[in-house]
Amino acid sequence: MNLRGIVSVSGKPGLYKVIGQNKSGFVIEGLDAQKLKLVVNLSTSKLASLEDITVFGEDEDLKLVDIFGRMKEGANVPDAKADGKALRAYFRDVAPGHDEDKVYASDMKKIINWYNILKDLPVFEEEAPAVASEEGKE
């Protein structure tokens, strides 16, 4: 799964793909059917890259990419509007070891919404690009 360049913008629903950068911020494009393009000013909005997002864990934080992978393998993703108990039961399966005191129902709903946006896109099936190693540069 290649989540590089996919971001969430504070105060805006949905997910976006970074397509460029200018002096005032980033040019982003919505991942929905409208393909709306926006310029996001970094002084007024926050961007969160999905490949960098983690979920609180009991021992160590869980990567969102790993949670999406488990969601993809399993079936029956609950509706994001399901009650908190159903979401919590589902998250015990796809994110074992998440900290139940710090991960709220709103967080689980957001992750399910993001999954539903991404699951039909080509980036969901792509392999993540390999990180260049420092050893090869010498």
UniProtKB/TrEMBL annotation:
Name the record gives this protein: Uncharacterized protein
Transmembrane domains' residue ranges: none
InterPro entries found in the cross-reference section: BVU_3817-like_C_sf (IPR049281), BVU_3817_N_sf (IPR049282), DUF5606 (IPR041218), DUF6852 (IPR049280)
Tree of life domain: Bacteria
Organism of provenance: Pararcticibacter amylolyticus
DUF5606 domain boundaries: 3-50
Annotated ranges, domain DUF6852: 53-118
